[in-house]
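Worked problem 6 (solution included).
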Amino acid sequence: MDTAGRDAEKAAAADAAVAEVRDGMLVGLGSGSTAACAVRAIGRRVAAGLRIECVATSRATDALARSVGLPVRPFDDVARVDLTIDGADEIDPMLRAIKGGGGALLREKVVAAASGRVCIIVDSSKAVARLGAFPLPVEVLPFATAWVVRALTELGAVPTRREGTAGAAVRTDQGNVIVDAAFGAIEDPARLAAALARVPGIVEHGLFLDEIDTVFIGRPDGVEVRQRQIGR
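Solution. The predicted structure is:
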C-alpha cells in the first residue's frame, strides 16, 4: 500500500476513536504520526464546541495539541485519565502491542496505566499475527547503555542504539537513550517482558501487553474495531 493509502487508513481510524471522546473528559494524547491524526481530529471537535482537557505523552504532542487549540494540563498532578488515544508500531489479535517507535514509550506507558480506557489507532499494516517484525524499543539509562546492549544480546536480540542527526544518540524527553532490539518473532511476549524487567538499566520497554482496551484498524473498506475480551 502506498503512503496515501496508509494515511487515509490512519485518518479513518483516528476519526473513529475520537468519536469516543465526550464532554468533560480528561484525554491522554499519544505520540507519533498516527496519534497526531487523533490530536488534530480532537482539535476539530474542540473548535466545534467539545469541552475537554488533555495530557500529552511527549513534548512534541504537547506542542501539536496547543497549536490546534487543545487545553493541555501537566501530567505531574494527574492521577487518573478518562481515555487515552495512541498509536502502535505493531498490534496482535490479543491486543498486545509494540510501541515506542517515536521514542515516547515510558511516558506512553505511564499515561496508559493511569487511564480508565486505552484506545489504539493503526493502519492495516500494523495489525500482525505475531509481534516482533518491528524491533522492540527499549529506553535505557545512558550510564548503562553498553551493559544493556550486552544483556539484550544475551536474551537473543540484535540491539542497535538509536541515532539521530550526525550520529548522535537519540535522547528521550527524560534524557535517556533508545536501543532498538530486533528479536524477530516473539513467541512469548509476557516472558520477554519479565526478562527485560530484570535487567538493571532498562527504564522501560515497548511491550504493551495488557494496557490496551480497544484497537481501531483503518482498512481500505472502513475501520475494524477490536475489543479486549478479558478484564484488565
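Discussion: The chain has two domains: 3-127+209-227, 136-203.
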